Amino acid sequence: MNNDKILVTGKSGTVGSNFDFGEGFRSFHYDLTNYNAVYRLMSDYLPTSIVHCAARVGGLGVHMKYKKELFYDNMLMNMNVLEVARQRDVKRVLSFLSTCIYSDRAQQPYTEKNIHDFEPFPEHYPYGFAKRMLEIQSRIYYEQYGLKYNCVIPTNVYGPHDDFNTETGHVIGVLIHKCLKAKNENKNFEVWGDGKQEREFIYAKDVANLTYWALYNYLDKEPLIFSNNQTISIKEIAEIIADTLELQTKIVFDTSKPTGQVKRTVSGNKLKSIYPEFVFTPIEAGIRATVDWFVSNYETARK
Ligand code: NDP
């Protein structure tokens, strides 16, 4: 597919910024919640493939406060992107789901088979349901039109270009920012919760490489999870960050703050079985590179 013209939605975000392929655009030029803008976008770019990454996302605070936007904007964006792509005969659309689509009642580790089991997490259900519908819409177009529209599910992404804002960002970016602030102000590094929760993370550059591979090599109807099957506790993450920044003060855990699920794991077994040679970036190396990136790009980083 050498003449393939890839359009990436969401190329300015945490995930898309790390892609070294595809053309991007900004939402103020083409607002994907607007059908006419999406039609104009596809007429201007004439893509032959689309990686659909754009979404309204955010940390827990955003999910609690902006339920309507997380549902309505994501539903509109997904509906418009896939439908206009179909109308314009784009044969390939690879879309991004998230582990927020799962339910706390579904069996762990989560797999490609139990996406729709039970309701999504109460704190994420507007976003979770909108994303689940993206999987449904992709599947419908695959079945009815024979289009290769399918989805991938990366576990929690971190890396350069992340959102390091302590109100809106994700856990690793937030902890890096908090730790740097603590270091600069010579204060203790405060971490929400007891640090025992375990999560899986994937380095944004690994997501970029896997996405490019999946665009051409993973054409099944069922979604594919991007995970390396390794969990790490929030405490261990905080320690790696503190170590990288050579923090001289203490790490303190604020157990009065919400912690989220104790453990959330997804299975990377399917990916491993079809792409066994892929080598994931070890979390220590990825966190160190992200800390270095944040320190070097402090002025312009999203914070
Ligand atoms: P970001 O919040 O960093 O970026 C969001 C992107 O979506 C931006 O490029 C933004 O463009 C674009 N966007 C938002 N609204 C619109 C709109 N109305 N019209 C056009 N573009 C819009 O998100 P991430 O990079 O973190 O996430 C990308 C995808 O990956 C999402 O689908 C998310 O669900 C998924 N994902 C992310 C994970 C993570 O940990 N980060 C984990 C699992 C999945 P602009 O800046 O121009 O507004």
Q: Say which CATH homologous superfamily of one domain is assigned.
A: NAD(P)-binding Rossmann-like Domain
Tally the helices: 9
Outline type: globular
What class do helices, strands and sheet pairing give?
alpha/beta
Number of strands: 10
Q: Which strands sit side by side, in order, in the main sheet? A: 1-2-3-4-8
Bound molecules: NADPH dihydro-nicotinamide-adenine-dinucleotide phosphate
Helix/strand order: EHEHHEHEEHEEHEEHEHH
Q: Uncertain regions: pLDDT < 50 for 5+ in a row?
A: none
CATH class of one domain: Alpha Beta
β-strand amount: 5-15%
Helix content: 25-40%
The CATH architecture of one domain comes to 3-Layer(aba) Sandwich
Average residue-wise pLDDT:
94
* CA(first)-CA(last) distance: 38 Å
- At CATH level 3, the topology of one domain is Rossmann fold
Descriptive account of the structure:
- This protein is of the alpha/beta class.
- It has a domain at 6-161 and 201-229 and 265-280: NAD(P)-binding Rossmann-like Domain (Rossmann fold, 3-Layer(aba) Sandwich), CATH 3.40.50.720.
- Helices cover 39% and strands 14% of the residues.
- The chain contains nine helices and ten strands.
- The protein has helices at residues 35-45, 60-65, 67-87, 125-145, 171-185, 204-217, 234-244, 269-274, 283-296, and strands spanning 6-9, 49-52, 92-96, 148-154, 156-158, 189-192, 198-203, 224-226, 231-233, 251-254.
- Strands 1-2-3-4-8 form a five-stranded parallel sheet, sandwiched between helices. A three-stranded mixed sheet has the order 5-7-9.
- Helix 1 (35-45) links the parallel strand 1 (6-9) and strand 2.
- The longest helix has 21 residues, at 67-87.
- The protein is globular, with a radius of gyration of 19 Å.
- It starts with 5 loop residues before the first strand and ends in a 7-residue tail after the last helix.
- The chain binds NADPH dihydro-nicotinamide-adenine-dinucleotide phosphate.
- NADPH dihydro-nicotinamide-adenine-dinucleotide phosphate is lined by residues 9-16, 26-27, 31-33, 53-57, 73, 77, 96, 98, 154, 156-157, 163, 170.
